[in-house]
Amino acid sequence: MRSLLLAATAVALLAFGPAAAQGAKPTPAEAKAFADKAEADLAAFSEYAARSSWVRATYITEDTQWLEAKASAEQNVLATGYAKQAAKYDGVAVDPVTARKLKLLKLFLTSPAPDRPGAAAELAGLQSRLDSTYSTGKFQHQGKTLTLNDAEDILAKSRDPAELKAVWEGWHTVSPPMKADYARAAALTNEGAKGLGFADTGALWRSNYDMDPDAFAAETDRLWTQVEPFYRNLHCYVRARLNDKYGDAVQPRTGPIRADLTGNMWAQTWGNIYDVVAPKTAASSYDLDKLLVAHGYTPVKMTQTGEAFYSSLGFAPLPKTFWERSMLERPRDREVTCHASAWNVNDRDDIRIKACFKVNADDFYTVHHELGHNYYQRAYSAQPYLFKGSANDGFHEAVGDLAGMSALTPTYLNQIGLLEKVPGAEEDIPYLLKMALDKIAFLPFGLMIDKWRWQVFSGQVDEAHYNEAWWKLRGQYQGLAPPGPRPADAFDPAAKYHIAASVPYMRYFLAFNYEFQFQRAACKQMGWKGPLHRCSLYGRKDVGEKLNAMLELGNSQPWQETLKVYSGETRTDGSAITEYFKPLNGWLTQQNKGERCGW
Questions:
Q1: pLDDT tens digit sequence for 419-448
Q2: Cβ-count burial of 589 within 10 angstroms (0-12 exposed, 13-18 middle, 19+ buried)?
Q3: Which residue of 89, 321, 483, 509 is most buried, as measured by CB atoms within 10 A?
Q4: Which DSSP category does 569 fall into?
């Protein structure tokens, strides 16, 4: 580790040799030598950092937190140093590959530390503590100690509004102690981002999309305008059904929806309350939760089924080490981070999943999704280190979502023997409504998470007004409200993992757009003539071949060019969403007649 840090100093001297010392402009050859050396050093360090993070996430102790923080700090120092040096080659006429590597070096860290002694170690300690505080969070409810998993089960299944409110508020007591650490970490990353030439951390994040940061922000707003009318239609319908269920005292028929009534801790997906909002005139003939249990599925069997899906597209089987090293269930003997994630520990072939899967439809979807990350990681593993990533971070999520979408189609469930026959068109509305409760309900949440952080990073929102700004955005975009007044010390944003763990979130909003574009492109390639929601990719090696051609490119070129390889398009387009859900949107419009929609 020390040798790597010394190497960073050495490369600076190499890059700015005699010519540079005399004030001469660096040559293209010097720029390439610098980029190659920086890439090699970062690659050499990445496996150590990844293994440290894996151990901390799957075995949370004071010692593993210390180890992860130490590795993270050293990686941050190394990467920040190279990012600052890369800026010195701006304007040098380098080849396209070197130019992209220099750009990616400047964007390498999402949370850069300031370039001063002790700052990287302080930031790494804060981040490890925030992640672990979230992951080990518990609260008391009716004499029992509940984890987030326990709370999620109650929110999904209970229909007692008093219990829902108590459990929702219980989990949100975990986050106030994180507020000071979060504010300090945000200040440090902002200082680091400014040192790299960005206005703030939000501008750094928005620069990662092969377009101007302000243009990217405008692009997200454009995408939202494409799908917002559909979301408002869904919101209006769901609110009316919640009012039918609970009455005006709990959920008024106008105004925002009470967040704890949506079946999800963050109200980001509403599929768990399908029983409350199900159509009265059309019923679904099957329950995927019950089908999985009836067929003897386990977390391992669900994962094997996910692997079989990718194998049917022509992808090679998972390596033996995947099954030996993955964490698929919550261990009984230690604290772990249950939030599902996919890893390639050595950036070559050590792919793994970390999750606490349960046998239900949500996790059946999640298995297919997380494996999408693994297959993507393996597809671009032959790229140079700096290009080992998705075309943009939304692509990584979208590939998994594409598989997850197929995993829920009745066609696929029939193909793998979970469903005896594919239901007729009379079940399209129930199916699409279930899908929309997760996919469409998510869109404004996926958008507002980073809009909140952009405001924090820019200074528009200070620490004293974190919670107020959070609920203002949730009201504006989602039409949601908390179940009751929030305490003065509430820090509700950090009740969401990605805030506590400083993971950029706009990728998910983008992914939910891309996945429908990918679905439309794949079904078109197959010559599919039916509705998009009945198109399963299972068994289509021609689709897998074209998909893999996109995945192998990694982050070697602008994402617009990579999107074109697969779909023929060069712009993110929400119209694929409206096309997929067109029958449902028409049905919702009919159901909402006489309602006062909006909030």
A1: 999 998 889 999 999 999 999 999 999 999
A2: middle
A3: 509
A4: -
